[in-house]
């Protein structure tokens, strides 16, 4: 497609998207209603899992926008989640005001993401992957170097007020996590529909062409990283609320790899894909866990899920012709096929 | 013009990149010790023809026989063992390797390996630059290196894609002279793709004109050079 | 001053291991334009196998040989079965597939061996002996220098003196032309992966006894350090990998020695950032590789 054709299609898409303007809002409202109803019917443990899905959804949604729409692969989002989680823990220790604490966690992680994003905008492919991997690996080292603040491997506990009224704590957690998740999704959905989304895709597809079309390449990339970092920070804060503690062990390198797997399986660059990914991140380990328990093997625990994720990731990557590229925008591909 | 003793026999060759073929039912033959020039406009399919013959592109239909051997299914990396050397368009010198390494690469498959003296005698310019890297060579030197490397494999058939590309007329005629010599001396067969019609026809025994992937004419070289209509129609001079 | 000398030798010994591992990364990068993010996990896997053999037979050296040979096999299998089928239109594809391999390998290792640290004996004493009244080196350090030195020499000979080395280089630089010249390009690629993985396994066998022991994640930090070393040297340059490895080894040891071991990983991160932002093509690379 030439640039002119591409611009023409985006204009067309924009007209269409004007009609679809309310789709994300409607989807999120329906989602919220379903979640609220679910919380009254599910047993506490299921509610806890549901809440975890919500917390994961924040970060997978942000990551799928970064990788799928902007073409930047980050292996460091686990570390960004840790940033949000530790910020909230430290805040709660002093003030115990959850909502401002979560906002602060997002702000701090956004700043951290901005720093990484500035470096990331100058790097490509394996170089960016290597740098973000280093960020993910370095978390335990930071917590033990500044152990007065972070209390090294033990980590910190997160002070939380009991839920208002007589609501069970798990239900309260679902509400908090999914409020965050749905707001994130809503925000991202409108963001990618607008000019920023178009710029991100243009940069991903062809940097030179994007530059010629007047898109600020570096600016777009940094912004994309910042946005997805903010989502990761929120997710980390929510995990802190869920576990009521934070420690480096909760944010290992494996977590960052799981996130990549989740967005690839769900369909890169799609928010529904991020939801599928978040669901699998909770469901698969749970299934693996029960298999391990049945088999009575301690070694299987955790490792079965790890292996399974790895196999799925490799198979999906090899089976999809064109690899990651073919997973971007399946919607559009379908439409093109329909026209032929 | 085809006869039983032909080294390369191509019948009904159809090939290209993906769905729509570029070459349609091309039939030609090259006898041992003969030079056949393949001429045609840009995009006529000359490079595609050579790439198909050496196995870089798959055959959609037709048959390629080399010295009685069906080349379908012979892997690219085995072609040189059967005696086919292909000098690709744009020279294909490995620029990160030295001149000597490039030449050695040409004869690597032969056992026992022979010294490269013969090649250096043919191209004294290369002998002086033995240890220079490929990207330090001039265009003409690279072309000599690419041809020298192909000759180091001791082929029976040489597929040459635009050896004169970007070269001064003097060097072009040197290379043409060399090809003629080799043919006369060693019985080498050459399928020579050229834009430089005059110099190609000056050494060729036979000329083939490709047009839009089909053979438009096939003549003795001198006849082709004299056929004003053909020249105007396909070769543009 | 004595401490500085001691740290310097310790750093060189550590750096030699990083150099070997970085060399393995560079080998694959040159051959396939893939940064093998699974290399750490692959090396751990072969180390587990090596130590299993060692404890079953009572012979460390048999285990050592099995680990290296296992690296050859694993490298070849990974290339033949997985990497060969990766779509190369985007460099991210190779990275993501390698990450999938990391998950698989770590998961399988955990299932077989569990996730506790297992002791890994060193073949030689790790107690430093004194030279002229100064504590400098251990026998194990000497073994490290010898082993890595041998690898560097052998690889140099392979690539500069043998026809196989010439074929491998040609196949990496110009695959299509090489095939026309009769070079089995696919085979050379497999060989490159096998050699690189074996070198990675060697690095694993050299580093694991000096750290906490065998663990599925034992090489995560080493991977980052070696990646930094390789980037420092320029991903395309074997010489750069060796020099980069020594530099990173020295830096890490000084930082650990003077500021504390906890700080070392952050020092690697900072070095990596500085290198990537100031000399993204490394100190030794001629080719422009950053965007590749
Ligand atoms: N890699 C490719 N993929 C798809 N089509 C190709 C490819 N290479 C060439 N073609 C098409 O095949 C046709 C023949 O190309 P070819 O390179 O064989 O021409 P040629 O006769 O060698 O021209 P020239 O004199 O310019 O070298 C052209 O229409 C070209 O567009
Ligand atoms: Mg051509």
Offer a concise description of the structure.
Chain C: Keywords: Amino-acid transport, Cell membrane, Membrane, Transmembrane, Transmembrane helix, Transport. Chain A has 340 residues and is mainly α.
3D structure, described in words:
The complex is a heterotrimer of chains A (340), B (237) and C (292). By secondary structure, chain A is mainly alpha-helical. Helices cover 79% and strands 1% of the residues of chain A. Chain A has helices at residues 3-19, 23-41, 44-70, 77-94, 98-120, 125-137, 139-145, 147-150, 169-193, 195-205, 207-212, 217-243, 253-266, 271-295, 303-319, 324-327, 330-339; strands at residues 156-157, 245-246. Chain A has a two-stranded antiparallel sheet. In chain A, helix 10 (195-205) packs across helix 12. By secondary structure, chain B is α/β, with parallel strands linked by helices. Chain B has a domain at 6-89 and 158-235: P-loop containing nucleotide triphosphate hydrolases (Rossmann fold, 3-Layer(aba) Sandwich), CATH 3.40.50.300. In chain B, helix 3 packs parallel to helix 6 (139-152) and helix 7 (169-186) packs parallel to helix 8. Chain B is globular, with a radius of gyration of 17 Å. The two termini of chain B are 26 Å apart. The mean pLDDT of chain B is 89. Chain C is mainly alpha-helical. Chain C has a domain at 18-220. In chain C, helix 3 (60-82) packs antiparallel against helix 8. Chain C starts with a helix and ends in a 14-residue tail after the last helix. Classes of the chains: A mainly alpha (340), B alpha/beta (237), C mainly alpha (292). Bound molecules: adenosine-5'-triphosphate (ATP) and magnesium ion. The site of magnesium ion has 3 residues of chain B, from helix 1. Chain C: This is Branched-chain amino acid ABC transporter permease. Chain C: It is found in: Cell membrane. Chain C: It holds the Pfam family BPD_transp_2.
Instruction: Give the neighbour order of strands across the main sheet of chain C.
Output: 1-2
Beta strand % of chain C: under 5%
As a percent range, the share of strand residues of chain A is: under 5%
Summed over residues and divided by their number, the pLDDT of chain A gives a mean of: 87
How many individual helices of chain C?
11
Specify the structural class of chain A. Answer: mainly alpha
List SSEs of chain A in N-to-C order.
Answer: HHHHHHHHEHHHHEHHHHH
Residue runs with pLDDT of under 50 for 5 or more positions of chain A: 329-340
């Amino acid at each position: 497609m030439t640039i002119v054709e591409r611009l023409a299609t985006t204009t067309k898409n924009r007209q269409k998207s004007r009609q679809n303007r309310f789709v994300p809002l409607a989807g999120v409202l329906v989602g919220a209603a379903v979640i609220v109803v679910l919380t009254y019917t599910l047993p506490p443990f299921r509610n806890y899992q549901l809440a975890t899905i919500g917390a994961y959804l924040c970060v997978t949604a942000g990551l799928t926008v970064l990788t799928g729409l902007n073409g930047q692969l980050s292996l460091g989002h686990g570390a960004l989640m840790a940033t949000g989680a530790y910020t909230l823990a430290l805040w709660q220790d002093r003030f115990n005001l959850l909502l401002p604490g979560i906002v602060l966690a997002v702000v701090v992680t956004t700043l951290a993401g901005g720093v990484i994003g500035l470096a990331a905008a100058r790097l490509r492919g394996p170089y960016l992957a290597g740098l973000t991997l280093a960020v993910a690996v370095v978390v335990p080292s930071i917590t033990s170097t500044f152990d007065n603040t972070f209390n090294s491997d033990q980590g910190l506990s997160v002070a939380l007020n009991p839920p208002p009224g007589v609501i069970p704590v798990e239900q309260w957690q679902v509400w908090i996590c999914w409020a965050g998740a749905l707001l994130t999704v809503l925000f991202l959905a409108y963001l990618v529909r607008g000019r920023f989304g178009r710029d991100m895709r243009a940069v991903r597809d062809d940097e030179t062409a994007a530059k010629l079309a007047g898109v600020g390449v570096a600016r777009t990339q940094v912004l994309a990283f910042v946005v997805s970092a903010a989502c990761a920070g929120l997710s980390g804060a929510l995990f802190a609320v869920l576990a009521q503690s934070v420690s480096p062990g909760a944010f290992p390198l494996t977590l960052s790899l799981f996130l990549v797997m989740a967005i690839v399986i769900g369909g890169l660059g799609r928010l529904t894909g991020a939801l599928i990914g978040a669901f699998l991140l909770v469901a698969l380990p749970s299934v693996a866990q029960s298999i391990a328990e049945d088999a009575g093997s301690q070694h299987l625990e955790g490792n079965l899920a790890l292996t399974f994720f790895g196999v799925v990731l490799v198979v999906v990557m090899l089976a999809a012709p064109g690899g990651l590229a073919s997973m971007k925008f399946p919607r559009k591909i379908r439409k093109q096929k329909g026209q032929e | 013009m085809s006869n039983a003793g032909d080294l390369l026999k191509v019948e009904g060759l159809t090939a290209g990149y993906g769905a729509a073929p570029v070459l349609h039912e091309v039939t030609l033959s090259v006898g041992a010790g003969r030079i056949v020039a393949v001429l045609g406009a840009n995009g006529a399919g000359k490079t595609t023809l050579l790439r198909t013959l050496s196995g870089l592109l798959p055959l959609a239909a037709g048959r390629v026989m080399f010295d009685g051997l069906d080349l379908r299914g012979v892997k690219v990396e085995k072609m040189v063992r059967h005696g086919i050397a292909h000098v690709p368009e744009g020279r294909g010198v490995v620029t990160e390797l030295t001149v000597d390494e490039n030449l050695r690469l040409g004869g690597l498959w032969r056992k026992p390996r022979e010294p490269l003296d013969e090649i250096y005698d043919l191209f004294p310019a290369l002998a002086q630059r033995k240890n220079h890297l490929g990207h330090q060579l001039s265009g003409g030197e690279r072309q000599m290196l690419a041809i020298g490397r192909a000759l180091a494999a001791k082929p029976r058939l040489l597929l040459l894609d635009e050896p004169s590309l970007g070269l001064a007329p003097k060097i072009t005629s040197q290379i043409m002279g060399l090809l003629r010599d080799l043919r006369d001396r060693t019985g080498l067969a050459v399928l020579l793709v050229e834009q430089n019609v005059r110099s190609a026809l000056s050494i060729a025994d036979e000329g083939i004109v490709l047009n839009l992937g089909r053979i438009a004419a096939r003549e003795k070289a001198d006849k082709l050079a004299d056929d004003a209509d053909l020249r105007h129609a396909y070769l543009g001079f | 001053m004595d401490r500085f000398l001691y740290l310097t030798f310790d750093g060189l010994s550590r750096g030699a291991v990083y150099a070997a591992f970085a060399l393995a990364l560079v080998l694959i990068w040159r051959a396939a334009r893939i940064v093998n993010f699974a290399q750490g996990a692959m090396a751990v896997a072969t180390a587990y196998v090596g130590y299993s053999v060692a404890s079953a037979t009572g012979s460390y050296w048999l285990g050592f040989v099995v680990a290296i040979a296992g690296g050859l096999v694993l490298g070849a299998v990974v290339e033949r079965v997985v990497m060969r089928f990766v779509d190369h239109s985007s460099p991210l594809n190779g990275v993501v597939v390698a990450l999938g391999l990391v998950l698989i390998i770590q998961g399988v290792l955990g299932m077989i061996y569990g996730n506790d640290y297992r002791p890994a004996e060193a073949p030689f004493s790790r107690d430093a002996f004194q030279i002229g009244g100064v504590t400098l080196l251990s026998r194990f350090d000497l073994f490290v220098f010898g082993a890595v030195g041998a690898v560097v020499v052998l690889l140099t000979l392979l690539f500069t003196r043998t026809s196989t080395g010439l074929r491998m280089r040609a196949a990496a630089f110009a695959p299509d032309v090489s095939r026309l010249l009769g070079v089995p390009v696919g085979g050379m690629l497999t060989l490159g992966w096998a050699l690189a993985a074996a070198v990675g396994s060697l690095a694993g066998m050299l580093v694991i006894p000096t750290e906490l022991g065998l663990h599925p994640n034992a090489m995560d930090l080493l991977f980052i350090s070696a990646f930094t070393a390789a980037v420092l040297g320029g991903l395309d340059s074997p010489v750069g990998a060796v020099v980069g490895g020594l530099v990173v080894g020295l830096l890490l040891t000084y930082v650990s020695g003077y500021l504390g071991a906890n700080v070392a990983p952050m020092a690697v991160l900072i070095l990596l950032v500085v290198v990537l932002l100031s000399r993204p093509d490394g100190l030794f690379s001629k080719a422009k590789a950053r965007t590749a």
